Amino acid sequence: KAGLQLLPVEPEEMEVVLGTTLSMSLDTLQECLLGMDSEHSAFGALLCDRLGYMQVNADSWAGSETEGLTRAVSLVVKCPPKPMLPETTRVKLRHRLQRYEGARLVLEREIATLDVPYGETFCVQERWEATTVDDGSRGAASNRTPRGGGVADDALLDVDIDDGGPQLVRLLVRSHVHFRSKLGLMNAKIKHHSIKKSRKMATLAVQLLLEAADAAADEAVRRPVEGPRCCRFEPTECGHIVSSYTARISPQKPSEP
Description:
The chain is α+β, with helices and mostly antiparallel strands and 257 residues long. 25% of the residues lie in helices and 28% in strands. The protein has helices at 26-33, 42-51, 186-222, 241-249; strands at 15-22, 54-58, 62-64, 68-78, 88-100, 104-113, 122-132, 169-179.
């Protein structure tokens, strides 16, 4: 049974800001998105660092993935050096994540930037929807670009999707600006800037999703197995796995004078 939506706007009324196909499982993507806008996961830490998040305070998730998980996040970011903008601004976010029938995942994300001009009169609402790419559509996945623009699949997909190999998910990100009060001509300007910023953030987030997934896969390969400590990989001590391994099994002797 589906829970209540966080965002009242229908998906069809939102603007597509990104569409791509990712080489990862839906479970892996879900684990990454659970760390969105927080430092509780590798993906979240990467995102917070790249977006310059400060004083991040993320509530624990409440609810269930089938009925909907919800939480609130507060943080502070620096503003660009432009007239009428403060040095920093508070940001309030609301998240809702739900898994549907095991093959579809939806993250709703609402962002309110409070201290910028008119900041309390509008918020940006995003819908991140991911679906598993089935066998019948794998061959055509890299050629599909959603209506309304977005990022072409080939820019982010680096596997041969016809080989029946990696699991794939189709990710579509939509954005909408909700105004709590009418601002006249400022509405159009705020909407244009907000959608542009949302598109830029979604593109960065997808790149970091892939980085986090690759790092997790590398860590799984490097994970120690049972045996003497001298034969275990220690990736945290050296960036290069071979160097770490060989340094433990055959340490270099000091050169003789």
